[in-house]
Amino acid sequence: MRRNNKKKLRVSLWRRWMDHGRALSGLVMTFFASAFLLLFLKDFAWQGLALGMAVPLMIWLTTRVIPRILPADSLTLSLTSFLCALGVLVLYDTNPHYAYHQALYYGVGLVAMEICIALVRTIRSWRGIAWLLAGLSLAVLALPLIIGREINGANNWIEIGRFSLQPSELVKLSLLVVLSYFMSRRSLIPWLAFAVGCLGILMLQKDLGTALLYYGTALMLYWTSTGNPGLTAVGLAGGAGAAVLGYRMFAHVKKRVAIWRNPWADYDNAGYQIVQGLMAIASGGLLGVGLGLGSPKAIPVYHTDFIFAVICEQFGLIFGLLVLAMYVALIWRGATTAMAARTSFHGLLAMGATIMLGLQTFVIIGGVIKLIPLTGVTMPFVSYGGSSLLSSMCLIGLIQGVESLNESDIAEDTYLAELSLQQRGGGVR
Q: Which one of 61, 105, 320, 349 has the fewest beta carbons within 10 angstroms of its own beta carbon?
């Protein structure tokens, strides 16, 4: 009786969250359709009208169609859609060219997310895949050292024709698969060697922001899989030592720490960006200056690192806190999905994707509001960039793949429970 009650509770909660997700998706579509309509009425540009139809359509596909093709959590998909559409909206208001590309990346990201969901659902053995991904990922991650170019002190980009690509964004996915597989098998050496190899390459590229994400994700995932406080403390000490070493070795790290401590001391040069970001947040106040208003382009990288400051300037601090609440809800749903997984591998995979999204959000927003030194990472789903948006959508795909398996288990449990009750009541009807 107790087991049946627990199964009924799981089914009830699942259906409740599905209802909440569908209700939220309707509000999200209405909000962004209205916002793009206002921008269209401002300058009567047909591009704004086109985005006003395309973005709500993609939200509808994400929240209403995809859950019917593959079982998925509508609430998580609605939160993801809100953040992606917010990025397109803010970019259109500041630079329509960026917005068109971001909308295209959003569409490609939906396809990539669905592929990730299908892979997690269908692949039964990850052993060979984990070993293959480990080797290929190290090779791909090292490409910028050979054919890459340096941006903001880090040599982590490669150019393919007219397109630019950041390999470390794509290797995030294989990192999670490799770590999750070998941690679930209690195989320390393979995942540790792979993680050290990735971190070594990132250090050579001077890409310390991504190195922080990789290291933090690996350490937190190790704590999740083992609960070993001793080795986790050793890992924290090692990370602190690496941070001190990076500070002493790289001039751009020293500069970032200096402007974090006092950006106004070098306002005309290195501190200009942070000061402009803080001034934008302050000028927005609680309710913002309004969509299409303000001076977002006064911030040099308003479309990537500092897009949160643009959001706070135009929509206000209250709306900015709402955006943070969206990320918190995503993290909570991801953690819930991980804890409900039937296998340790799937649980670690969902938890790793959740940790990476949460850590990246904290690092970039913490840097923008001067809580921590600024690092070169993007705001998930919102910042401009195909590599970043694609990897973020794939992370959601991994989480939703595990959630899809969980929901399949719920459906199976429900069927078996109802079958058992029918048999007790006098046979199957």
A: 61
